[in-house]
């Protein structure tokens, strides 16, 4: 302990105290403060950049989700539209078909009616023709009969022959 | 080993044996030389040799001596002592006589013309003066202070231009970050560490670079000077005493959760711990580690001379080289470790002084306090 | 002479203490390698405190 106290130099202690005070003051003012401030700034900058990147990523994810949603909606809409169109098409075809059917049926009915009436009128005409024709024939036959007696016989004979053949 | 050699070498009686022209080759001379080296010196001595004429020549340069004497401030160059360190050379300045004994400057009492010694080799007719000389240690401090200032202010300037330093700044930046993130921040706490980081960084780099400087062949031993380490420790003491908050003082002076009767005793112990033991352990640790390191390295180098007879020149030299090489490597580690520990403990003490005890102490069934980790740590230190 | 014996005793005590610190720290690290950093820091601090004590005693006796 004595030796230690003997080694201790009060002068050096004073000089060292002054120099250390000076050194601390100078270092804090000209070195540590600017260095630590810059380091803090840099770290904050890095943190901000990281935060921003994280935020951007999140936004991207949101956007992606939105996109997906939109896409899904669009797809559903297209699907719905297609379905609607298909239904419309089918309906139109069906409508057309039924209309055509009814029209055809109508036409057929009209045609049948027309044919029926034509047939009736034709039959009527035919009937009148036949009657007039038979009257004429009868007239002619009668006339000839009246003019020629032989012939009348002949005719009757032939007619009878025909009837025999029947 | 470190302790043992410190003691063994320190206990050797000092003899003034310079009859062979000042060559250092015997055991006692080596021990004396080592003891001389770990003390501060008034001149910057690089090496000595004996010339052809048999004269001992010392190469180095003198440093100014500035002393406060009974006649006021006196200055002269240390070359006037002619490398004498045993009180033989008397320098007359300002009407007073001065001499240098073991790196200390003594002022001779009035009327005395030579120094008289008692049997313990203490001067009887001379007294020490207040010595503000620019000694070798002061040169070391100035050198390192300048170096630190240049390095770190350049780093600070680099940050103004861009965020990432270049060149030597790239070496310094991780060190700065290390001190801030590994020493200041965890020990002081997120809230207060900014106030003390400047001091801690200054002290860390100051001690570390001076420790490393001590390992160079220039033979600085700045952090092995009690005055220097005492100054550093007292700075820490002042800082943590001045920044101690209410909780800190209450835990020292009137420890809560302890029986009333024990509190004054505890206060005494705590006060002694905070004001004496903590700074004392700081100053002694640094001083002893660095001094012991220097002594060991120099003793191992001295094996070259002391074991020359028993091992031969080659054997002694190679043994000395191998041993001193490895011990020097360890000393490089110790240089960092001591700077780290000094800064770390300073940060810890400051952290304890500014810690906020916002937690309620848990009490067990008998009303005694269950110590939490912080209290245990505080008691331990 | 006596203070040399005292120094020896101090060194023995400090050695035992340092051995305990180092050994327990190693055990702790082996058990929990992920806590290596914390254990090392605590180990260095405690070793430094012990060292301060030992040096203090040595120099008081010197």
From TrEMBL, chain A:
Topology within the bilayer: Single-pass membrane protein
Subcellular location, record wording: Cell membrane; Endomembrane system
Subunit comment: F-type ATPases have 2 components, F(1) - the catalytic core - and F(0) - the membrane proton channel. F(1) has five subunits: alpha(3), beta(3), gamma(1), delta(1), epsilon(1). F(0) has four main subunits: a(1), b(2) and c(10-14). The alpha and beta chains form an alternating ring which encloses part of the gamma chain. F(1) is attached to F(0) by a central stalk formed by the gamma and epsilon chains, while a peripheral stalk is formed by the delta and b chains.
Name of the molecule in the record: ATP synthase subunit b
Coiled coil: 36-91
Gene: atpF
Function: F(1)F(0) ATP synthase produces ATP from ADP in the presence of a proton or sodium gradient. F-type ATPases consist of two structural domains, F(1) containing the extramembraneous catalytic core and F(0) containing the membrane proton channel, linked together by a central stalk and a peripheral stalk. During catalysis, ATP synthesis in the catalytic domain of F(1) is coupled via a rotary mechanism of the central stalk subunits to proton translocation.
The entry's keywords: ATP synthesis, Cell membrane, CF(0), Coiled coil, Hydrogen ion transport, Ion transport, Membrane, Transmembrane, Transmembrane helix, Transport
Predominant location category: membrane
Sample GO molecular function, one term: proton-transporting ATPase activity, rotational mechanism
Automatic annotation (TrEMBL), chain B:
Keyword Transmembrane appears in the UniProt entry: yes
Subcellular location, record wording: Cell membrane; Membrane
Location (main, coarse): membrane
Molecular functions per Gene Ontology: proton-transporting ATP synthase activity, rotational mechanism
Keyword Transport assigned: yes
Name of the protein in its database record: ATP synthase subunit a
PANTHER family (UniProt xref): ATP SYNTHASE SUBUNIT A
Membrane topology: Multi-pass membrane protein
Gene it is expressed from: atpB
From TrEMBL, chain C:
Keyword terms of this UniProt record: ATP synthesis, Cell inner membrane, Cell membrane, CF(0), Hydrogen ion transport, Hydrolase, Ion transport, Lipid-binding, Membrane, Transmembrane, Transmembrane helix, Transport
Record membrane topology: Multi-pass membrane protein
Predominant location category: membrane
Residue intervals of the V-ATPase proteolipid subunit C-like domain: 5-57
Keyword Secreted: no
Site, Reversibly protonated during proton transport: residue positions: 51
Superkingdom as given in the UniProt entry: Bacteria
SUPFAM superfamilies associated with the record: F1F0 ATP synthase subunit C (SSF81333)
Presence of the UniProt keyword Hydrolase in the record: yes
InterPro entries: ATP_synth_csu_bac/chlpt, ATP_synth_F0_csu, ATP_synth_F0_csu_DDCD_BS, ATP_synth_F0_csu_sf, ATPase_proteolipid_c-like_dom, F/V-ATP_Csub_sf
Cellular localization per UniProt: Cell inner membrane; Cell membrane
Record text on subunit structure and interactions: F-type ATPases have 2 components, F(1) - the catalytic core - and F(0) - the membrane proton channel. F(1) has five subunits: alpha(3), beta(3), gamma(1), delta(1), epsilon(1). F(0) has three main subunits: a(1), b(2) and c(10-14). The alpha and beta chains form an alternating ring which encloses part of the gamma chain. F(1) is attached to F(0) by a central stalk formed by the gamma and epsilon chains, while a peripheral stalk is formed by the delta and b chains.
Protein name as it appears in the record: ATP synthase subunit c
Gene expressing this chain: atpE1
């Amino acid at each position: 302990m004595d030796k230690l106290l003997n080694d201790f130099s009060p002068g050096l202690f004073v000089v060292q105290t002054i120099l250390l005070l000076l050194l601390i003051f100078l270092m804090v003012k000209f070195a540590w403060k600017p260095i630590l401030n810059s380091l803090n700034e840099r770290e904050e900058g890095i943190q901000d950049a990281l935060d921003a990147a994280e935020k951007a990523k999140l936004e991207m994810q949101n956007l992606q989700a939105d996109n997906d949603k939109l896409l899904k909606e669009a797809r559903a809409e297209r699907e719905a539209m297609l379905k609607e169109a298909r239904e419309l098409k089918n309906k139109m075809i069906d409508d057309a078909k039924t209309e055509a059917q009814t029209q055809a049926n109508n036409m057929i009915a009209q045609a049948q009616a027309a044919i029926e009436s034509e047939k009736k009128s034709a039959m009527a005409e035919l009937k009148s023709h036949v009657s007039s024709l038979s009257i004429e024939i009868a007239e002619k036959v009668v006339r000839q009969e009246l003019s020629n007696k032989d012939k009348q016989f002949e005719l009757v004979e032939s007619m009878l022959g025909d009837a025999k053949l029947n | 080993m470190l302790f043992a050699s410190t003691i063994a070498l320190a206990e050797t009686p000092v003899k003034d044996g310079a009859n062979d022209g000042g060559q250092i080759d015997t055991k006692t001379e080596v021990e004396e030389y080592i003891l001389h080296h770990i003390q501060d010196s008034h001149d910057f001595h690089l090496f000595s040799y004996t010339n052809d004429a048999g004269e001992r020549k010392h190469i180095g340069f003198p440093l100014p001596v500035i002393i406060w004497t009974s006649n006021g401030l006196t200055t002269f160059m240390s070359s006037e002592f002619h490398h004498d360190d045993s009180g033989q050379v008397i320098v007359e300045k300002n009407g007073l006589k001065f001499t240098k004994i073991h790196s200390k400057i003594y002022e001779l009492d009035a009327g005395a013309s030579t120094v008289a010694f008692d049997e313990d080799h203490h001067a009887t007719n001379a007294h020490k003066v207040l010595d503000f000389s620019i000694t070798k240690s002061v040169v070391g401090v100035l050198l390192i202070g300048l170096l630190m200032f240049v390095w770190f202010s350049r780093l600070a300037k680099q940050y103004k231009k861009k965020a990432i330093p270049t060149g030597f700044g790239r070496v310094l930046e991780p060190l700065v970050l290390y001190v801030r993130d590994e020493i200041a921040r965890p020990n002081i706490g997120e809230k207060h560490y900014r106030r003390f980081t400047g001091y801690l960084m200054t002290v860390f780099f100051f001690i570390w670079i001076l420790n490393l400087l001590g390992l160079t062949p220039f033979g600085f031993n700045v952090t092995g000077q009690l005055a220097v380490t005492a100054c550093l420790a007292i700075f820490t003491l002042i800082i943590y005493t001045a920044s101690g908050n209410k909780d800190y003082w209450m835990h020292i002076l009137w420890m809560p959760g302890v029986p009333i009767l024990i509190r004054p005793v505890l206060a005494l112990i705590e006060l002694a711990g905070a004001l004496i033991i903590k700074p004392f352990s700081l100053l002694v640790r640094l001083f002893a580690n660095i001094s012991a390191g220097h002594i060991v390295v120099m003793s191992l180098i001295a094996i070259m001379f002391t074991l020359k007879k028993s091992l031969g020149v080659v054997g002694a030299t190679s043994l000395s080289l191998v041993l001193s090489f490895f011990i020097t490597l360890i000393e490089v580690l110790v240089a960092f470790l001591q700077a780290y520990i000094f800064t770390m403990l300073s940060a810890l003490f400051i952290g304890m002084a500014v810690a906020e005890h916002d937690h309620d102490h848990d009490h067990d069934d008998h009303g005694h306090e269950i110590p939490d980790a912080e209290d245990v740590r505080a008691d331990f230190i | 002479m006596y203070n040399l014996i005292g120094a020896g005793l101090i060194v023995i005590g400090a050695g035992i203490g340092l051995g305990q610190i180092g050994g327990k720290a190693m055990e702790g690290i082996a058990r929990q390698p992920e806590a290596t950093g914390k254990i090392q820091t605590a180990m260095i601090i405690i070793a430094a405190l012990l060292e301060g004590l030992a040096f203090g005693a040595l120099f008081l006796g010197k």
